[in-house]
Amino acid sequence: MAPDVSSFTIASKDVQVLRERLTVSTGDAREEDTLSDLIVGILDLSHPPTTKLGLNYNGRFLLSSESVWHGKGHQLAPKEPWSGLLTKPGLLNVTMRDDCRPNGHLNVSVGPSPVKNSIVVTTNDHFEIPSGAARDAIALIKSEWRKSLSNARRIASILATESPS
User: Could you tell me which of 62, 127, 56, 124 has the C-alpha nearest to residue 96?
Assistant: First the structure.
């Protein structure tokens, strides 16, 4: 612990508290429900001003071969626009934004993973909380948690699907 940061792990849940940010995460999909309970509990106990809420998902997907992996990159970031500009272009990351609600948006990113022939799909379901009240953040978590996670998994699954050769 330090004056501006506190970071600790509870079971398989990592908690980081900064002056203006709380991050709670897990790498264990079996802990997703208890993760939301922990976040709600922290907000309910401390009632911090809360103006933004992000429900994030990260998934890594192993593709069947290097050629399929390259094909996914070509599908998401076609090389033709780069012809004559770059010698050997390759996908580093692509991010799309959906302004899907009045007080928020969804960001979806896809890029290569450090694991050979795999990609990482991340989503950030972002909500603005005009009232700044923790109780409104809690209500959003309770109403949106499962929907956000289900949508993130659906998007990731579609993006990670291998195209027929």
Answer: 124
